[in-house]
Q: What sequence folds into this?
């Protein structure tokens, strides 16, 4: 898998949000939402991105998709830099990359019938006639486990799980190769979550989809993903295969995260690693290793030097001085 | 009151295919004041449309033999004015003028306000610039702004329409901009962007339909203001000129006959009052019926 060209390659991606103030709106400081993220996503795999709230995972996903302008770095899709592409090519690239959103109640236009909402994709990217579009949309609805008759309904007539299925239908409508799932199941009940995940896996097999699965739910990520990237405060902390991350976590932050997963096993000893303090503000970025303010292993040099991104075993990377 | 109504309606029979507009209209009708308002407005619309069939005298038809007749005298339902013109006929044709002027000025104002509001809300770059111009317009007292514009363009009903529509633009622009700012952060807008939809498509198909509620309320309330201002300007001699059966102009003409024929001023006065009242309560009723806190996505 590692040999051929990656589907998506991100190099040194940075995304800063400027804090402006004063009459002249001068940039006073930056919120560093994503800091130097580089990764490769290969065709057919599911890459999980985990981290606590505010660590930049969603911003990363949106930036890759072009919903946010990147501050620095480059995004290569099938080896082609998408920066500076003509509008026409950019449109093709957008067609190949879709997103499933977190909140099923906010991701559908309340004033638009489901059928019309799904047809938008075909109106924008194809020349299909009204009749053909309708036919395709009805097929899509069945594909994601809804009924063709739902075509004429409004979003408020559906439950959260059903709405999420509609969101999935919209994402797969144009046969994309990469789908970014931004907390796609976090807003759903556990039982509905399981069914949506099963649907995602089925679709992946059928259409050879590649997923970038952004989540804070480590259990779901373990179930879904081949590889996992752990993020902290906009930086990459650890990257490896699911097994490497879950069985042999190296970075102290990853360990703390994993020890915090609730395990419903009776009699099992509970001794989660407790992290001191809060997540530092991304506008007041810590020097050196961004995790040093809360790290149980922190040494003096952690405050000064940004840790290197090291490969400690085949395909398992970590950014820490102490491991 | 209408909150309960909404709840009952939803629990009792959630009808699947009923259109949003129909539902809203039903809810407005349950509000008693708004119901009265709708009746008054409907009567006015009927009078305006069928004016020639409802009157036996023309609005300009003078008959110096029967000047200043009182209400009900000699076959004139509302009497006659100082030239012997039938007051009823003038009132009915006046309704026509008020409605046309009100509708066209609000429509023009909406077109301007919607465009500015949409652009300002959607593109942060021009937001500051557009909204400062809007603030500038806001700084003038409304009627003064209208008078200023009429002073530049000359006195006529068409210029009144232009003046009032310009005066309506800033309010509308602000309301629309506010709605756009909140809607554009919604995930369904992001979803459309990630599908590669053009800005115009997003604005017209996805943002605009979701900010109709405040716009409808604004337009209804604005009708009242527009009709009132038209009359005020005509009263001051800046709008419709004397022979025209415009209500404000009629009040002005009746001033000199206040003691001998008070109905000449009072009748158009009541007409203005009823119309303004009606549009205001309908606007109120619509606002309650469209309140997002009661039913966010029907």
A:
């Amino acid at each position: 898998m590692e040999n051929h060209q990656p589907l998506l390659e991100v190099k040194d991606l940075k995304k800063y949000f400027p804090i402006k103030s004063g009459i002249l709106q001068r940039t006073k400081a930056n919120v560093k939402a994503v800091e130097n993220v580089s990764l490769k996503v290969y065709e057919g795999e599911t890459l999980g991105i985990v981290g606590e709230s505010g660590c930049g995972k969603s911003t990363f996903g949106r930036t890759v998709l072009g919903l946010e302008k990147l501050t620095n770095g480059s995004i290569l899709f099938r080896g082609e830099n998408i920066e500076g592409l003509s509008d026409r090519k950019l449109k093709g690239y957008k067609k190949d990359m879709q997103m499933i959103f977190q909140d099923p109640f906010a991701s559908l236009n309340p004033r638009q019938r489901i059928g019309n909402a799904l047809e938008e994709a075909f109106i924008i990217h194809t020349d299909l006639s009204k009749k053909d579009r309708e036919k395709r949309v009805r097929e899509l609805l069945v594909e994601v486990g809804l009924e063709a008759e739902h075509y004429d309904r409004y979003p408020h007539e559906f439950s959260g799980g059903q709405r999420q299925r509609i969101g999935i239908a919209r994402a797969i409508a144009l046969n994309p190769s990469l789908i970014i799932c931004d907390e796609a199941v976090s807003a759903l009940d556990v039982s509905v979550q399981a069914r949506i995940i099963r649907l995602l896996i089925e679709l992946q097999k059928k259409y050879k989809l590649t997923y970038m699965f952004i989540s804070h739910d480590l259990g779901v990520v373990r179930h879904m993903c081949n590889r996992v990237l752990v993020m902290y405060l906009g930086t990459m902390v650890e990257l490896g295969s699911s097994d490497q991350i879950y069985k042999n976590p190296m970075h102290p932050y990853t360990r703390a995260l994993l020890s915090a997963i609730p395990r419903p096993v009776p009699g099992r000893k509970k001794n989660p690693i407790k992290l001191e303090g809060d997540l530092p503000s991304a506008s007041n970025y810590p020097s050196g290793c961004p995790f040093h303010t809360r790290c149980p292993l922190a040494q003096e040099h952690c405050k000064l030097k940004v840790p290197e991104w090291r490969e400690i075993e085949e395909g398992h990377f970590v950014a820490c001085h102490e491991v | 009151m209408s909150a309960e109504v909404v709840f009952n309606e939803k629990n009792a029979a959630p009808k699947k295919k009923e259109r949003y507009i129909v539902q809203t209209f039903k809810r407005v009708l349950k509000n008693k004041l708004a119901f009265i308002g709708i009746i008054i407005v409907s009567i006015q619309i009927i009078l305006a449309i069928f004016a020639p069939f409802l009157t036996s005298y023309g609005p300009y038809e003078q008959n110096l033999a029967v000047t200043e007749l009182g209400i009900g005298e000699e076959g004139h339902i509302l009497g006659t004015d100082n030239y012997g013109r039938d007051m009823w006929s003038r009132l009915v044709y006046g309704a026509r003028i008020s409605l046309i002027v009100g509708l066209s000025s609000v429509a023009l104002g909406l077109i301007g306000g919607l465009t500015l509001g949409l652009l300002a809300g959607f593109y942060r770059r021009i937001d500051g610039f557009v909204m400062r111009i809007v603030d500038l317009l806001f700084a003038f007292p409304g009627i003064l702004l209208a008078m200023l514009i009429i002073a530049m363009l000359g006195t006529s009903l068409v210029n009144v329409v232009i003046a009032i529509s310009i005066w309506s633009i800033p309010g509308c622009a602000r309301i629309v901009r506010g709605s756009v700012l909140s809607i554009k952060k919604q995930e369904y807008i992001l979803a459309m962007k990630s599908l590669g939809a053009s800005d115009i498509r997003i604005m017209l198909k996805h943002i605009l339909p979701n900010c109709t509620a405040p716009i409808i309320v604004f337009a209804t309330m604005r009708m009242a203001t527009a009709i009132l201002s038209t009359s005020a300007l005509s009263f001051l001699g800046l709008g419709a000129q004397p022979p025209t059966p415009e209500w404000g102009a009629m009040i002005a003409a009746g001033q000199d006959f206040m003691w001998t024929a008070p109905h000449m001023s009072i009748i158009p006065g009541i007409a203005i009052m009823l119309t303004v009242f009606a549009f205001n309560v309908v606007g109120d009723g619509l606002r309650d019926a469209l309140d997002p806190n009661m039913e966010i996505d029907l």
About this structure: Chain B has one domain: 21-290. Residues 1-17 of chain B have pLDDT under 50 and may be disordered.
